[in-house]
Amino acid sequence: MDMDLHNFELDELIERIKQGDHRLIALQIPEGLKIQALDLMDEIETETASKVVLAADPCYGACDLVHDKMRMMGVEMVAHMGHSQMNIDSGMPTQFIPVTYSGDPELEPVLPFLHAHREIAQGRLDSTVTDENELSEEEAQERFLDAVGRLAPLADAKLGLVGSIQHLHMLEQFKTRLEEAGFRVTIPIGGDRLTLPGQVLGCNYSGDDPTVGHYLFLGSGDFHPIGLVLHTGKPLAMLDPYTGDASEMSRSRIEGILRQRFGMIMAVQESKSFGILIGEKPGQMRRSLALRMKRMLEKHGKKGYLLALEHIGPELIDFYPVDAFVNTACPRIAIDDAVKYAKPLITPFELEVSLGEKKWENGYQFDEIP
Ligand code: SF4
Fold it and tell me: Does a structural domain hold residue 350?
């Protein structure tokens, strides 16, 4: 990763620190960029009268704000890097810095994927949807596992152009290039948790709508692509601005995840007691959902224990004498990390399916935080 191509917007940050005459600020920075933290701290301390504390715990999103702890330490302002502001109140002056990356990959390598995906999307648009009332239980369970068949009808087959925060400033330019290559392109606008057009988070894909038939994701890694395809079932191509590599999220990968989720739901059907995990991070805290899960378990004659944690890991919960866990914190803990846990770890929707409160045939429902 070429750090020189990242824009940490230090001039603006330094100006704001000087204007506020701050004497102690905190820097919160995601794992992939922490290697730069000490240089950033040096520069801020050289250019201003402020000292800098690094909030050195892991940080994976703007859901994870450290303001309460930093306030207790006497910090006057937080610079939160690598994420955009969410619909939660940070409670103190905060500078959100997206840390944009100016690498500009060629479009050419991703075009074959986009052509193939457009065909699939057009085929889906043209096909009729089976009447769900006619499905047998077995067919309904199969539909649950089918990453494509579970979808709501499409209204169009446009290409949805999305990305992670570092690359969103490139989307308009890419839209033009894709249109020149013959695609009809839309940059989805999401809900309150998302700040910028085309933005996706690991827990929120609210920009998706029936006019989008397939996606191009501008970014690296498969964290966002996995969530987007689980959420939508739509074909997705990826273009990595750091390497220029193009790829696609394979259908077999998503079906593997759905099979694993199906297995978890089946595994908890006889479970009698559950730990219900509540995330303590401000943007992950879903207290009402956790309480609703507890009431639902009680209605079915089962026991639910509310467990509040800031960090969630096997060593912190596996020892509780319950049969399984329901996670209301970051949705990706259950989806991406379930194999690390000794007991089944399921999402609230999966609990509802296992209790018969939701139906298989409506398809897999990604646990989105709105
Ligand atoms: S809740 Fe999870 S997926 Fe959502 S922003 Fe936070 S860390 Fe990312």
Answer: yes
Residue that is last in its domain, among 228, 249, 270: 249
pLDDT tier at 304 (50, 70, 90 boundaries)?
very high
Measure the CA–CA gap between 65 and 350, rounded to whole angstroms.
Answer: 28
Mutate to test the pocket of ligand 1, among 28, 31, 63, 164 (most ligand atoms within 8 A of CB): 63
341, 333 contact by CB (below 8 A): no
Looking at per-residue pLDDT, the higher value among 313 and 149 belongs to 313
Residue 148 scores a pLDDT above 80: no
pLDDT beyond 80 at 139 = no
User: Residue 271 sits in which domain range?
Assistant: 261-362
Structural domain count, the chain:
3
- pLDDT computed for residue 147 by the predictor: 58
69 CA from centroid of ligand 1 (Å): 20
Which alpha helices (H) appear in the chain, and where do they start and end? 10-20, 37-47, 67-72, 111-126, 137-145, 171-180, 223-232, 251-267, 287-299, 314-317, 332-337, 348-354
In a domain, 254, yes or no: no
Judgement on whether residues 288 and 310 belong to the same structural domain of the protein: yes
pLDDT at 4 exceeding the cut of 90: no
Asked if 334 and 346 touch (Cβ cutoff 8 Å), the reply is yes
231 plus 118 within the same structural domain = yes
The answer, yes or no, to whether residue 1 has pLDDT greater than 70, is: no
* Domain CATH code at residue 228: 3.40.50.11850
255 belongs to a structural domain:
no
User: 279 and 242: one domain?
Assistant: no
pLDDT at residue number 106: 97
Query: What's the whole-model pTM score?
Result: 0.92
279 lies in the same domain as 220: no
pLDDT for 90: 82
Residues with CB under 6 A from ligand 1: 60-61, 63, 201-203, 283-284, 330, 332, 369
